[in-house]
Amino acid sequence: MEVDALIKDVSKVRQYLNVYFYKFSDEITGALIAILSRENYIMIGPPGTAKTMLVASLSKLLKARWFYRLLTKFTELEEIIGPIDVVELLKGNVKRIYANSIVEADVALLDEIFNASSAILNTLLTILNERVIFDGGAVVPVKTWTVFGASNRVPDEEELQALYDRFPLRTFTKYASPEETEDLLRTGLALRQEYERMIHIMTMDDIKKINEYINKIVYENSELLVKHVSPLIAAYLDHVVISNRTRVKVPIYVMAYLTILGIKPSDMDASSIRAATIKVLKYLVHDKEDLSEYEAFVSSHMPGNLSTLYDLINEIKALIANNALTIAREKLREAEELMDKAYADPTLYKFFQTEMAEIKDALSMLRSQL
C-alpha cells in the first residue's frame, strides 16, 4: 500500500534529522507534526540554536520550495508577498510579482517574527489562518503549506497575542551545556558537511497524500479518538491554558505523531492514542514556564509503571534526606524492578524512552547515595 511506504519514509526523515541535529528531538518532532497536519509551528529560543538550519534541512529532505526572511521593523511588505510589477504599472495595471515570495513557497520561515511592522503583522494573520492575502481588491491564495516562526521571546504585547495564537505548536530551544560541547561539535560539523549533499527522501506531494490520509483516519475514528484524547486534554487544562481552536485539532496532531513513529492506523489502539496525546500536549504550552506544568502533568499521567516510578523517586529522595536509608534501599529495589518491567513493555519504550532514560539516571544517582 502506498501510504504504508510513505509512513516509513516519514520515519526515515525523522531518523535522518535526529542523527545530524544534536539533542533536537523535540524540535524535529514538532516540525514534522506541523508538516503532516498542515499547521503553523514556532521555535522560541536564543539565536544560534539551529532553528533556521532545521527548516532548511527539512525543506531539502521534502524537496520543498522554501521562503526565508529575517523580519525587522524596517522590513517592507513587498519583501514578504512580492514587489509591484513595474512593467504592468506603466501600463496602468497594479499587479504584483509573487514568484520567490511567501505566496509561492511550500514552506516558509519567518525569523524574529514579532519584530515585524503592523502592516506585515496584519497580512500574516490572514496568511496563517486562511492561507490568503488581500492584495488590493483581489483575494490571492497563498500556497505555503506550513509557516514556521522563530523568535527569541514569547510576546507579551496585547497586539501580538492573536499572531502568537496562530502558532499552536511550540518548542523552546536552548544552548548546549558546556559538558555537551564535544558531542555538539562532532554533530554540528557532520551536519555542515552533510547539508551540501543532502537529497530528498520525500516530496511535498507525498506529504499532502499523508495529510489527506491522516484527516480521513481522524474523521473515520473520531469517536475512538475523542473518547481517549478528551480526558487527557481536560486534565491538562488544570496545568496549561489551550484555546478551543487548538483543542479541536489535537486528534489530528495525535495521528500525525503516530505516523511519525511509524505506527499505522491498523496498529492504533487505546494505549497508543493516550500515549501519543501525552507526548503531543508538550507542544501546546504557552511559554517556557509552562514546561514545568507539563512535567507535573506527565508524572501523574504516564502509563504503566512510570507514574509509580516518579512517585517512588520522590519518596526515596525524602527518605535519604531524613536518613531512613534502610527503607530507602527497599524502595529503590522496588523501583528498579518496576523499571525492568517498563523496559520490557514495547509500547512504553516506543513512546517514552527519553523519560525512561531520565528515570533510570535518577535511580542510578540515588543508588550512588546509598
Q: Which residues form runs of ≥5 with pLDDT under 50?
A: none
Helical coverage, percent range: 55-70%
Mean pLDDT, all residues? 91
* Number of helical segments with 4 or more residues: 16
Based on the coordinates given, report the CATH architecture of the largest domain. 3-Layer(aba) Sandwich
Q: Helix/strand/pairing class, anyone?
A: alpha/beta
* Strand order in the largest sheet: 2-3-6-1-7
CATH topology of the largest domain: Rossmann fold
Per DSSP E runs of 2 or more residues, the count of β-strands stands at 7
User: Outline, from the CA principal axes?
Assistant: elongated
What is the succession of H and E elements?
HHEHEHHEHEEEHEHHHHHHHHH
Terminal-residue CA separation: 55 Å
Strand count, sense and barrel status of the largest sheet are: 5 strands, parallel
**Cα gyration radius (Å):** 23 Å
Pfam families: bpMoxR
InterPro entries: AAA+_ATPase (IPR003593), MoxR (IPR045427), P-loop_NTPase (IPR027417), RavA_ATPases (IPR050513)
Protein name: MoxR-like ATPase
